Inverse folding.
């Protein structure tokens, strides 16, 4: 146990070297003296080279006090018997303090046994206080985002929901202390924390060992024991070792790589002993290795922590987004510093322009008394090596260094040590100093090659915008403007006069808000079929649209058209709030290529239905495109449903700029020998004039163009089908697309004739035109090759 917990300890006899009892009023043992005692750690233990540690008593100042039986040292977390060097210590196992006769030092004697995990959990009873920080009144406590996240998670757990919970907290608002707070407040039996990097594993483990800053800020009482923390660093040899390691710990911190180093059976044995899973930097969770770990905790509480709940590849994190603290609020509260954005325009040598500006900013910041460091970011190792001579030329006094993944560990440590000790103030890296690297002075970002997605950009910038103190100051981001951005949000961010303090707030809120909407949309389905995961659905952007005239739709009537025995997923998954339903059918038919009794064709088709109550439109999508689903539409939307057909379907192509047809189907009413023809590629030039004759009509058109700056494709047919080459990332994206095309379909202000006149009809050029080309649009074959 650590400390007396307010009870007076029974003390052993204290003897001098010659064995005579020292009186309490002996002048050598004056009360009121102070000593500084170091951390007291339990004896370190390891299982297969993975260490288990516990901080028994944190470093603190003690006051020497007289009590019955001898001297004691009284500190912020307890009191202990105290000996001077002249006293004889009998090797007693109770934890004690030996105080130096001279100076202020002291050391620990005896009592280095680890607490059992159950003892730690027992000490958490009544130890947590829901106290919010109030800087104006100098009251310590949880920060506002931490308090909100703790309440949100604890509240979510009361619902016994099985979906993972996602918590979004901007960089610098205290994710780790939020995890520690949940450990104590919920008295978690055994927690596994997954982090992406070894450096972050050690960083988080160190925070858990000390209960973060929660005891210092009096959120957790001083008599709460600090948890037993295991660092999983190597493979565990067998199931017994895995269980032995896990059951000795309150908290296990591991990387996916360290977990996967063990065999699946051993890995499962460790996971089975854990009650809860926390995932840090959860934007990695779309990766297979991370997803496998999360799936192994199915049915157990899982919380995903991230500053940005989206991935560069567009995959969703999964789970329910239960709390998101706005970046705008974090900046206003001072958790996230202001950002100075500098756009550099130089077409001849953009690298030199960016480096020159970064070095100039570093010099001016240092002159202003700010302890700043420059990080130059590139995409490739070769580029990092190219930039090193440039920075050495511009700023030799700052000793520029390079860090990348192919450096030997010794070289990498030397470079990072130079930064920590300020032997270097410029580091060139290839995405190396993000997660797990906490250096507050990293305040100048020279982005030679900007990231290509908003999510990664926000994560990257967040590392520089941590608010620390006045000696550190604001962050500066320097970016070249030579490279065009395809992402509209990035174009706004990298504009010449962009105010990042406003834009990053706005863009972060838009991005996080989109994830919140998606999370709420998916939660609206309630219980979903186990056979097919909702998150795995990727419907094509395709639909047939029906007008309805009902007060409510009836998705439960699907089984009137499709029998239950043909439904792979039953009951039909329905989101009543958003009027969306989906199901998968299973069709078994004889093979077409022979009369074979025991061989059959089995096909699975996805059906998605969405009813827009306001516009009275029913959208039906299916991977089976052989039908326009009239029976299904009538069953769900009423007998008087009416499919939208005819030339008005081509309204969906309105508001698309530079509309170029790539496929045109033509129907000839008179020519029975050649009623239907289809024109593709260069042949479209012939197809359009042909279709415009009096005896012919266009049955379907597929075209490409630009809408709101984005390259889009859109197709429509007279039968009423609308489609695009794009596949939806999720059902919500398909619903949004339906709303977009549906608003055009019923817009009486759109003229189909105007849409047709707006087509750009490609012409085959036999000779080079006598003009200077301003831009070229290369065919897709150029990029494919």
């Amino acid at each position: 146990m650590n400390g007396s917990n307010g009870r007076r300890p029974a003390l052993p006899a204290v003897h001098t070297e010659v064995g005579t009892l020292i009186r309490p009023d002996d002048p050598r043992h004056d009360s009121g003296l102070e000593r500084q005692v170091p951390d007291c750690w339990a004896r370190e233990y390891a299982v297969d080279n993975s260490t288990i540690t516990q901080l028994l008593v944190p470093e603190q100042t003690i006051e020497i006090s007289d009590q019955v039986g001898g001297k004691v040292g009284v500190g912020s977390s307890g009191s202990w018997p105290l000996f001077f060097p002249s006293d004889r210590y009998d090797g007693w196992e109770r934890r004690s303090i030996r105080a130096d006769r001279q100076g202020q030092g002291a050391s620990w004697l005896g009592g280095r046994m680890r607490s059992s995990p159950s003892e730690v959990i027992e000490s958490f009873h009544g130890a947590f206080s829901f106290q919010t920080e109030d800087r104006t009144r100098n009251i310590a406590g949880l920060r506002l985002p931490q308090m909100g996240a703790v309440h949100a998670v604890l509240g979510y757990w009361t619902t016994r929901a099985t979906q993972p919970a996602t918590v979004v907290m901007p960089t610098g608002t205290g994710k780790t202390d939020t995890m520690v707070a949940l450990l104590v407040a919920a008295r978690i039996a055994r927690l596994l924390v997954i982090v992406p990097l070894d450096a972050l594993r050690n960083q988080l483990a160190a925070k858990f060992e000390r209960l973060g800053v929660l005891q210092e800020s009096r959120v957790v009482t001083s008599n709460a024991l600090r948890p037993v923390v295991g660092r999983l660093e190597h493979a565990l040899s067998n199931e017994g070792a895995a269980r032995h390691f896990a059951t000795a710990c309150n908290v296990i911190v591991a990387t996916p790589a360290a977990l996967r180093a063990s065999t699946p059976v051993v890995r499962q044995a460790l996971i089975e002993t854990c009650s809860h899973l926390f995932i840090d930097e959860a934007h990695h969770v779309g990766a297979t290795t991370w997803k496998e770990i999360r799936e192994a905790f199915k049915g157990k509480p899982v919380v995903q922590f991230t500053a940005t709940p989206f991935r560069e590849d567009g995959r969703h994190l999964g789970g329910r987004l239960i709390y998101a603290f706005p970046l705008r609020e974090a900046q206003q509260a001072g958790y996230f510093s202001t950002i100075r954005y500098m756009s550099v325009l130089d077409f001849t040598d953009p690298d030199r322009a960016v480096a020159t500006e970064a070095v100039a900013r570093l010099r001016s910041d240092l002159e202003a008394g700010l302890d700043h460091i420059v990080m130059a970011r590139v995409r490739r190792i070769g580029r990092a090596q190219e930039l090193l001579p440039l920075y050495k030329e511009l700023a030799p006094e700052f000793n520029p260094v390079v860090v990348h993944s192919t450096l030997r560990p010794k070289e990498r440590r030397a470079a990072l040590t130079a930064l920590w000790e300020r032997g270097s103030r410029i580091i060139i890296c290839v995405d190396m100093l993000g997660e797990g690297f906490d250096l507050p002075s990293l305040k100048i970002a020279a982005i030679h090659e900007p990231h290509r997605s908003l999510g990664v950009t926000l994560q990257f910038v967040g590392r520089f915008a941590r608010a620390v103190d006045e000696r550190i100051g604001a962050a500066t981001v320097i970016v070249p403007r030579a490279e065009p951005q395809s992402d509209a949000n990035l174009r706004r961010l990298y504009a010449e006069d962009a105010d990042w303090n406003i834009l990053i707030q706005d863009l972060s809120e838009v991005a996080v808000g989109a994830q919140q909407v998606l999370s709420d949309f998916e939660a609206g389905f309630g219980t979903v079929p186990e056979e097919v995961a909702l998150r795995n659905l990727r419907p094509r952007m395709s639909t047939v649209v029906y007008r309805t005239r009902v007060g409510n739709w009836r998705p439960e009537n699907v089984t009137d058209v499709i029998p239950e025995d043909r439904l792979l997923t039953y009951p039909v998954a329905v989101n009543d709030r958003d009027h969306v339903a989906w199901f998968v059918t299973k069709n078994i038919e004889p093979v077409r290529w022979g009369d074979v009794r025991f061989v059959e064709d089995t096909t699975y088709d996805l059906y998605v239905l969405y009813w827009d109550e306001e516009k009275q439109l029913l959208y039906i999508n299916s991977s089976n495109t052989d039908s326009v689903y009239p029976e299904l539409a009538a069953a769900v939307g009423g007998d008087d449903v009416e499919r939208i057909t005819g030339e008005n379907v081509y309204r969906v192509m309105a508001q698309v700029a530079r509309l170029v047809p790539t496929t045109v189907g033509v129907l000839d009413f008179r020519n029975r020998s050649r009623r239907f023809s289809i024109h593709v590629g260069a042949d479209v030039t012939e197809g359009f004039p042909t279709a415009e004759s009096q005896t012919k009509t266009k049955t379907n058109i597929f075209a490409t163009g630009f809408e709101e700056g984005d390259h889009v494709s859109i197709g429509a047919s007279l039968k009423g089908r609308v489609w695009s080459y794009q596949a939806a990332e999720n059902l919500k994206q398909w619903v949004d697309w339906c709303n977009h095309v549906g608003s055009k379909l019923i817009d009486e202000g759109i003229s189909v004739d105007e849409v047709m006149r707006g087509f750009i009809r490609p012409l085959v050029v036999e000779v080079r035109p006598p003009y200077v080309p301003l831009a070229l649009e290369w065919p897709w074959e150029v990029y494919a090759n």
